[in-house]
Amino acid sequence: MPRDPREIQLEIDAARESLAATLDQLAYRSSPTRLRAQGQAAVVRFLQSTAGRATVGALGLLVTLVVVQKARHRND
């Protein structure tokens, strides 16, 4: 039994709307501006946390030790 052309058209329209919504979601999720903002917010949250402050402190100490070590070897 042949299908009603109006029914087929409604199915096509629904599929088109669904595809458009999916493409909009993909464009939103992969937006470079949004991803950059999310990354920056994550870094700020980390740096403001106890673990972030400890990491920055340890990194500063390491850099200081390396600079002092290099300065000592220059004078030898």
From TrEMBL:
Protein name: DUF3618 domain-containing protein
InterPro entries linked to this entry: DUF3618
Biological source species: Geodermatophilus arenarius
Entries under Pfam families matching the protein: DUF3618
